[in-house]
Write a structure and sequence with these properties.
There is one protein chain. The protein is mostly helical and 180 residues long. It is built from 10 helices and no strands.
Length: 180
Amino acid sequence: MAASARTTEFLKECMADALIHTMREKPFSKITINEITDQAGVNRSTWFRNFSDKNEAVSFKLERLWLRWADDHEMKEKHRFTQDNAAEFFSFNYSIRNLLSEIYRQELHNCVFNAFHEVMTPQYGSDPAGCYEASFFTYGLFGFLDEWIKRGFHETPEELTELFRNMIRINGFTHEADRK
């Protein structure tokens, strides 16, 4: 990654972190761009050069956290669902449960979905079957995650992984990558 790209990613993450920190202190709708940029130590033009709105910044942070987790756990496939990475997906989300709970408390469910969708589906391009399959598993996994967050992470990541795998098995669904 070029130095300017690394700098941009760093600044984006600083701004997203400032927003998330401020979210813990006041309602999302009341947070101003000036508050975020002041806390991040950047100017307003940096914000608007990188984000179209605050929701995008929250989604960006979730994407970065996932990619970091996947790298740290040496995941082979981090940009699409396979039954092999279901356990990692649920473990990752459990590890950031406080952040996810705050995001849901602020009624920003769409930020979680947007981040998840961005990570899980960009590589399918114009292949119709791949696009539909990716959407099917993306929405299904998000449904599990959404319910789990709403239930206060009552089940363990292992229990949720087993529930998901059983549902896939019972309903006869098999992801392309799992057939090989």
